[in-house]
């Protein structure tokens, strides 16, 4: 635990401008808990903030502490409910104004916020800090068999599990299904693991790089396709989890899914018009659904991480948060890295 009344935090100031600075120790209010952060996963949104100074329409207008995938221990609970040192992870969302039209999907309610995001003003500061204050209902306790390091994967794994929730909601049966995962980055790798655990008969992973495909096989993909050289088999998959966010992949997966199959768009696509051939979508009566973050799936993610320790292999790099350039450049190198996480502060 930091011994002074100041702690270190990593700030992104603008595109390719980041620095570690000292800030006052945050004081928890009623209903809040202060955590000592051990690990933070670097997400695609963090990379956009660092390299572009914006994540889509969300521009860095004040120094931003990134990070919404985290694990650590309780440092101080004013209510005395959680003992210091209790291992935890965090649901990074604060939900907005209730909308009765989709009462069971608070992650879609307007006015919410997410740790480490420039979508709000002031920005919602994130987890790349020695200490972090969050609401008590955001805290998730870890079971004894789940190490703090592996628990940093709970948030991105919950994203993949929510994609399966969306597939089921569109009528898909995961058990015994033939599943295709396109894009074998960290979310794609966790989607492979989630589909295998859900009882898929066969999981195929597709990517343009050999490193991600090898890592996908390590998470249980029975087959892989290098789409830079080989085409996906047509009308062959019951469920497709499109995790690349590449517009070109959308046309390919519409060809690859079987008639009346389900495609879940997991990867974020560019916020601009792009041409897509929708004729297979129509002719095959494909059910195409979106997925955005998650709601309760983080609890299932914690359980799955506890049951399947091999998922921790998705983490390929653990680097010091005191070196932001090294941390972000490693996460950007998708050929050699899966999930990049920060090491505990020195």
Overall description:
There is one protein chain. By secondary structure, the protein is of the alpha/beta class. 25% of the residues lie in helices and 28% in strands. The protein is built from nine helices and 19 strands. It has helices at 44-52, 148-151, 154-169, 186-197, 210-218, 247-256, 279-283, 297-307, 324-332, and strands spanning 6-14, 17-24, 32-41, 54-55, 58-59, 69-76, 87-90, 93-94, 113-114, 131-135, 139-141, 178-182, 202-207, 223-226, 237-242, 257-265, 287-290, 315-319, 339-342. A six-stranded parallel β-sheet has the order 14-13-12-15-16-17, sandwiched between helices. Helix 9 links the parallel strand 18 (315-319) and strand 19. The longest helix is centred in the middle third of the chain and has 16 residues, at 154-169. It is globular. The model has no long low-confidence stretch (mean pLDDT 96).
Summarize the structure.
The chain has 346 residues and is an alpha/beta fold.
Descriptive tags:
346 residues, alpha/beta, 6-stranded parallel beta sheet, 5-stranded antiparallel beta sheet, 9 helices
């Amino acid at each position: 635990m930091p011994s002074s009344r100041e702690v270190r935090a990593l700030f992104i100031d603008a595109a390719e401008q980041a620095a570690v600075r000292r800030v006052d120790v945050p004081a928890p209010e009623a209903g809040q808990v202060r955590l000592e952060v051990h690990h933070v996963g670097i997400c695609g949104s963090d990379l956009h903030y660092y390299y572009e100074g914006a994540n889509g329409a969300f521009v860095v207008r004040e120094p931003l502490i990134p990070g919404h995938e985290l694990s650590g221990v309780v440092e101080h609970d004013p209510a005395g409910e959680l003992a210091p040192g209790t291992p935890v992870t965090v649901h990074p969302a604060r939900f907005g104004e209730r909308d009765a039209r989709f009462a069971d999907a608070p992650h879609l309610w307007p006015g919410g916020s997410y740790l480490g995001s420039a979508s709000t003003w002031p920005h919602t500061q994130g987890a790349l800090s020695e200490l972090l204050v969050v609401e008590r209902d955001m805290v998730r306790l870890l079971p004894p068999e789940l190490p703090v390091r592996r628990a940093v994967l709970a948030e991105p794994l919950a994203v993949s599990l929510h994609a399966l929730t969306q597939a089921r909601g569109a009528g898909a049966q995961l058990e015994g299904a033939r599943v295709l995962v396109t894009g074998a980055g960290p979310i794609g790798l966790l989607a492979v693991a989630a589909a295998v655990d859900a009882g898929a008969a066969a999981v195929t992973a597709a990517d343009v790089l050999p490193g991600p495909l090898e890592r996908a096989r390590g998470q249980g993909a029975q087959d892989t396709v290098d789409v830079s050289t080989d085409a996906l088999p047509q009308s062959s998959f019951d469920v497709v989890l499109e995790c690349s966010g590449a517009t070109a992949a959308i046309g390919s997966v519409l060809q690859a899914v079987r008639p009346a199959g389900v495609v879940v768009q997991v990867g974020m696509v560019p916020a601009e018009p792009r041409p897509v051939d929708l004729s297979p979508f129509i002719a095959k009566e494909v059910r195409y659904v979106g997925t955005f973050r998650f709601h309760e799936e983080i609890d299932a993610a914690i359980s799955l991480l506890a049951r399947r320790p091999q998922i921790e292999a998705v983490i390929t790099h653990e680097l010091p948060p005191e070196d932001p350039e090294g941390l972000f450049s490693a996460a950007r190198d998708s050929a050699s890295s899966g999930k990049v996480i920060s090491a505990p502060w020195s």
